[in-house]
Structure formats: C-alpha cells, structure tokens
Write a structure and sequence with these properties.
Blueprint (H helix, E strand, L loop, with lengths): L1 E14 L7 H5 L2 H4 L2 E4 L2 E10 L3 E10 L6 E2 L6 E2 L9 E10 L4 E6 L6 H12 L7 E7 L3 H8 L1 E12 L1 H8 L4 H12 L4 E7 L10 H13 L1 H4 L3 E10 L5 E5 L6 E6 L10 H24 L3
Antiparallel strand pairs: 1-8, 1-9, 1-14, 2-3, 3-4, 4-7, 5-6, 7-8, 10-11, 10-12, 12-13
Length: 301
C-alpha cells in the first residue's frame, strides 16, 4: 500500500467586477474539464470530475513527455528502452475533493504529479480563451483547530522565526505585494545566500510584544500564496503567551497545517491511476476531518 499526503485548503475567488463565481462553476464546466493543457513538457487534464451533491471529487492527470531512463534486467544486466511512442509519456495523478458548502479543498500531494503551485495556474490556463469574468483564485492554508485556537488567543507575540530557501527567488516572487517579507529575504539575495534564517524576538516577559498587525498580515499573505512559495518557505513560526497562560506557546504555519493521509495499492506495472481507490480514500479522509472543518467554519477560525 502506498501512503499519500492530503493537504487541506480554503478556496477563495474574487472576480474583477465583484460578481459571484463559485469554484464548482469551474469544476463542473464540461468545456473546461474536457481540455488538455500543455505546459512545458507536461500535458495536464482532468481524468474525471464527479458531482456528489455536497461535494465534488476529481482526479488531475498529468503526462510527462520528458526523456525517460532505461529499464534494467538485474539478472542479466541488460538495459533496454521502456518503449514509449512519440505520443506517450509517464502518467501521474492527484485526487481532490471540494466541499461546496464551506469551500474546503482537499488535494493529494505527489512527487511527480501536479502540485498546488501548478494547480491554480492550470485553472487559469483552462479559462484563458473562454468568456468567463476575470478572477483571482487563492487556496488558503488550513491550520489545525488547535493551532488556530492558539493563534487567536495569543495575547502578545514574542518572537517570529522565518526560514526561506533561495531568497533571490523569494524576492522575485513576492515583488512589492508583501514589503515586510521582501525586506527579510532581500539581504540574503544580495549576499548570495542559499538560505535565510531570521528570528525577531522580545526578551522581556511582560509589557512588550512584537507588532501583531504586521505579523498577522505576513501570515495571511503567506497563507494566501502558499502555492507560490511552498518550495521556498521552510519555517514560519510564532511564539507568544495565550490568555491566562504563563508558558510560551508556538504555532508554525508549515508544521501545523491540517494534513490527512490516504492509502491505495500501487504496483510495478500499473495500467491506470487507481481512480476508484483514490476516490474512495479521499472521501474517507474528508469524513475523518469533517468535525474539525465544521468547528473552523462555525467559529470563523
């Protein structure tokens, strides 16, 4: 059995004219779901999208048309080509589930498929030539109920720890949309660093705290743009005192993400992407976290 990680996001769509556009309007649009998008050496499409009433389940299929290594016979040491034709490539899948009632989006993380930073680009590519109002779609990180509760009851933030890989790339990605974050990464870029590891803290026990408003804006921006920065951001943690507590508590945007897992059988010579097993597994994963998702929605966490 192969164990795969499921990440949980909250979908938010904003249209250019402030009209309403629901994510299900895109997912259930057959004109869009029948398209194949070519990006670089990858062909991306929906293998299926199914309306299940309160939720939608689907499978993203991506085909890599890159060069492949040879196969090797370990008994004889003889190597030979895989035998792919000119229109054939290696195929990978990512199953997803979207809850219509509360806009939560569960997405399978795989090494070779389509990761979240590519998925939103895929959505934009699907609508590029269609008569659909311009929109901005964001997939916000959903943190665990415990982490969100700690963050909301944190009276004073005493320290923030941020770690970025490839600060030059961070500067280019952030541009001027989050100046505080850019200014943290910029010196690392100028010095030619591969990693920026910064801690800002207040050492006194009482009376002082960091500027909560600015930190929360950074936290919100990183959450909104996690797909863009997922390869760069290694840590974004905040320490502070919860109300009526004497000990420091910590939340980490990366470590405290809501995560689930699914399992299904994979073998050496697969002839499909295990569509039925993946579908069943992600629905079970959704069932397991429904109580937490309901708590987040009802308490506006």
């Amino acid at each position: 059995m192969s164990k795969k990680k499921i990440e949980v996001f909250k979908v938010k769509i904003k249209t250019a004219d402030e009209s309403e556009l629901m994510f299900e309007d895109l997912l259930l649009n057959k004109i869009l779901t029948d398209k194949v998008i070519k990006t670089g050496s990858k062909h991306i499409e929906f293998a299926y999208v199914e309306d299940k009433g309160d939720f939608i389940v689907g499978l993203v299929k991506s085909t890599k048309m890159t060069a492949t290594p040879p196969k090797n016979n370990v008994a004889t040491g003889v190597m030979s080509p895989l035998g792919l034709g000119g229109t054939e490539g290696l195929c990978y899948g990512n199953v997803f589930l979207y809850s219509k009632k509360d806009n939560f989006f569960l997405y399978e993380v795989t090494k070779d498929g389509v990761y979240m930073g590519q998925f939103d680009t895929f959505i934009y590519d699907l609508v590029r030539e269609e008569e659909i109002i311009k929109f901005d779609i964001r997939f916000h990180i959903v943190m665990t109920v415990d982490a969100l509760s700690k963050l909301l009851t944190m009276g004073g933030q005493k320290s923030i720890h941020i770690q970025f890989a490839d600060p030059g790339e961070v500067v280019k990605k952030v541009k001027d949309s989050q100046k505080a974050l850019k200014e943290i990464a910029k010196p690392g870029d100028e010095l030619g660093a591969e990693l920026v590891d910064v801690v800002y803290k207040i050492t006194s026990r009482k009376g002082k705290s960091l500027h909560t408003g600015k930190i929360n804006k950074m936290l919100e921006w990183v959450s909104d743009n996690y797909g863009l920065l997922r390869d760069n951001i290694k840590e974004f943690s905040i320490k502070g005192y919860e109300e009526d507590q004497e000990t420091l508590t910590e939340i980490d945007l990366i470590k405290d993400k809501m995560i689930e897992f699914i399992s299904y059988t994979e073998n050496k010579n697969m002839d499909d992407l295990r569509p039925t097993a993946r579908k069943q597994e992600i629905q079970l994963a959704y069932d397991r976290i429904q109580r937490d998702l309901k708590t987040i929605t009802e308490n506006d966490l």
